[in-house]
Structures are given as C-alpha cells and as structure tokens.
Amino acid sequence: MEIERVQDVSSSSLLAESIPSEFIRTEKEQPAITTFRGPTPAIPVVDLSDPDEENVIRAVVKASKEWGIFQVINHGIPTELIQRLQEVGRKFFELPSSEKETVAKPEDSKDIEGYGTKLQKEVEGKKAWVDHLFHRIWPPSCVNYRFWPKNPPEYREVNEEYALHVKKLSETLLGLLSEGLGLRRDALKEGLGGELAEYMMKINYYPPCPRPDLALGVPAHTDLSGITLLVPNEVPGLQVFKDDHWFDAEYIPSAVIVHIGDQILRLSNGRYKNVLHRTTVDKDKTRMSWPVFLEPHREMIVGPLPELTGDDNPPKFKPFAFKDYSYRKLNKLPLE
C-alpha cells in the first residue's frame, strides 16, 4: 500500500488553500487559539565556554528543573558542520519521491529507522504535518547504512563527523546534570547504558501549510530519550509548554537546543523535568529540524538511580526496559 507523504499533501493543499480534515486539530490544540500572545519568557541560554564550571552547572540544573529545556552556545560543534548537516538533509528531502522511498521504513518493521510519515498512534486519528527520516548514528555497531541516504553523496561523511561531536557534547551535558544532582560525573551516562547508549538522528521536514492556524507539525509530547540535542533551520516553530501556556522558542543561530527526555526524568526520580513541546508550521516556508536522541539500548532497564532514593524519597517511577517503555508510550498504554 502506498503511503501518502505530507510533502505531496502540501503541494496539492497549497493550490487548494485548504488542508484535509485529518490534519485539522481540535480547538484545544489549534495553534491560533492556544499560543500565548503576551510577552514571552525566553528559554534559558547556557554558555558552555564560561570558565566558571560551577556557574554552568547551576544554569543547567536550574533550566532542567524549571523548564526541561535550554539552549547551549559555544558548545564545540563547528557552525560550518551544522550548516553542512542541514544542507545534506535539505538536499535529501528535495530529491524525487522515488529516490526518497529507497530508504523508507519497511511496513512490517518493528523499528523506526527509515524515511516515513506516521510515527505514533494519535487520538482521534489525526495526522501531523511532517515527514521524517530516522537512522542511528552511534555506536558503529548499531548503525544500519541501509537507511542512510546515498544522495547527496556527502551525506554519510557529514553525519559521521556530526556523530562524534554530538556524542562529546551530550557526555559533557550528562556530566553537568549528574554533578548537579550531587552524583559522580558518569552517573547519568551509565544510567543510560554507558558506551552502549544509542544516538538516533531524526530529520523533521515540515513543508509549507496553507492553514498553519489549524495544523501541527508534531503534537504535544515529551521525548522518549534521555536527552535530545536539536538544531533547527531558521524557520520558527518549536513551542514549549510552561506555566499552563504554549510559548514560542526563540531561534538562536548555531545554538543547540537541549531537551530533557523521559529517561532523565526517571533516572533523576523527577528532579529534572521532561519538557512538553510541540511544533507549529509555516504558511510559506519549510521548517526543518535535526534532533539527535540519546537513548538507552533496547534491553536496558531504566528507573530512578538508587543514590537518589531512600526512606524519605521513595522511587516515583517503575523501572522498565527501554523497549517496553517505548512500546507502551507510542501505543498510549499505561506506564506505571
């Protein structure tokens, strides 16, 4: 059965200046109704080049407890590498459909790797205005090049170089988050599986939408990951839920946006917050983003770290193997 891609829906919808009903959100989700329109608080920005590490730890901890999201600058990933990553991703999505389909997720696959459209079960059968590409980029033992585009030819080289930088940055951040909990620097890294933890690249492609007031690129969700490191293109769209409001995230060129995901919430026994976020779309421009999800391997059991629980602080979360946690969450099954 041929799957309809949102890129194709966009082309026909722009001509009609309307969108199919399955993309129209309920009023409690529609961005035109639910986006906060007053003065918007800024998502915290952390400068990793600050020589005072205690200061950096304090800033990361405060942002992770209050927001569950922050932006890092002077993070060590070269700006030109981010630009190359974005260029090869954009070129892939601009290829003819038949070429993109060569790396499509197989219909019978239990995994998420590959080019695709629908990711998870949605209430009321609604659809998100996005196509995507998933593939693991680290460790080498879990990389499957079957799902890496052959075109543009430099795609593989750029992603392999980016993987090394994103791994280094994520380990720096996990170290800061661990120390902020009074733990050994490696505690959260080990809690996610140490060197067996997996880095999953996703490219989100949100084509122009004639009714951005009614549709969402991705509905409200928290990430399955431990942490997510994301670079967007210049078209705004990320929104964060805080204090009962949806706020627009500011675009800072070359910054990396860090999301605290479900597994760090669980490992920290709730001390760090997993950020609820969503994506809006644009009427005229294509938004794209490149999140890398740092995840435990499938069999890894994740629950609150013993050092953070005790008689006066019982575990708030039930331990789950990551594969079971993911299955339950994506299929809207109970998690406790």
* Count of domain modules: 1
By secondary-structure content and strand pairing, the structural class works out as: alpha+beta
What's the helix-strand series? HHEHEHHEEHHEEEEEEHEEEEH
Question: What's the pLDDT, averaged over the residues?
Answer: 95
Instruction: Say what the CATH topology is.
Output: Jelly Rolls
Strand content: 15-25%
Question: CATH H level: which superfamily?
Answer: B-lactam Antibiotic, Isopenicillin N Synthase, Chain
Give the proportion of residues in helices: 25-40%
| Widest sheet, order of strands | 1-2-10-7-12-5-4-3
**Overall 3D shape:** globular
Reading off the top of the CATH hierarchy, the class is best stated as Mainly Beta
Keywords: Dioxygenase, Flavonoid biosynthesis, Iron, Metal-binding, Oxidoreductase, Vitamin C
InterPro entries: DIOX_N, IPNS-like_FE2OG_OXY, IPNS-like_sf, Iron_ascorbate_oxido_reductase, Oxoglu/Fe-dep_dioxygenase_dom
GO molecular function, one term: dioxygenase activity
Protein name: Fe2OG dioxygenase domain-containing protein
List the SSEs and their pairings:
Blueprint: H1 6-16, H2 31-34, E1 45-47, H3 53-66, E2 69-73, H4 79-93, H5 97-100, E3 114-116, E4 131-138, H6 155-180, H7 187-191, E5 198-206, E6 218-221, E7 227-232, E8 238-242, E9 245-248, E10 256-260, H8 262-267, E11 277-279, E12 287-295, E13 301-302, E14 320-321, H9 322-330
Parallel strand pairs: 1-2
Antiparallel strand pairs: 2-10, 3-4, 4-5, 5-12, 6-11, 7-10, 7-12, 8-9, 8-11, 13-14
Helix pairs in contact: 3-6, 4-6
